[in-house]
Design goal:
The protein is built from three helices and five strands; from the N terminus they run E-E-H-E-E-H-E-H. It is an alpha/beta fold. It has a single domain, classed as Transcription Regulator spoIIAA (2-Layer Sandwich), CATH 3.30.750. A five-stranded mixed beta sheet has the order 1-2-3-4-5, sandwiched between helices. The longest helix is centred in the first third of the chain and has 18 residues.
Amino acid sequence: MPYQLIKTLDSENWIRLTGKLTVLEFQEILALAKLSLERFGQYRTLVVLEDFQGWSREPGWEDSFFLVEDENWISKIAFVGDEKWKDEVFMFTGKQMRKTAIEFFPQDQLAQAKAWLSEESTNYIP
């Protein structure tokens, strides 16, 4: 399984991604996010990319866009991993088109990513 839920604490989920992420697995991750949204009204996500190999090349991604309708309730998303994935992660999440705070941290900056994730977001609109 390329993703593993590391920790769930209130409105915060920590997820580890390894290997190639499939459409089905991404939809399962979105379901976790929506559950946090329903329970807490917002959520933050830390995604650790460990031996990540990107996204599968299968049909269905076009129906799995990254939660545009819930954008105002997504406080923050922090990615930690090999910097070679930074631009692709930003393209995948649509960082340039969103109000959501999305940041990428190098592998050796996990502590900084956690600290940033816990800071109050200026993008959250209740």
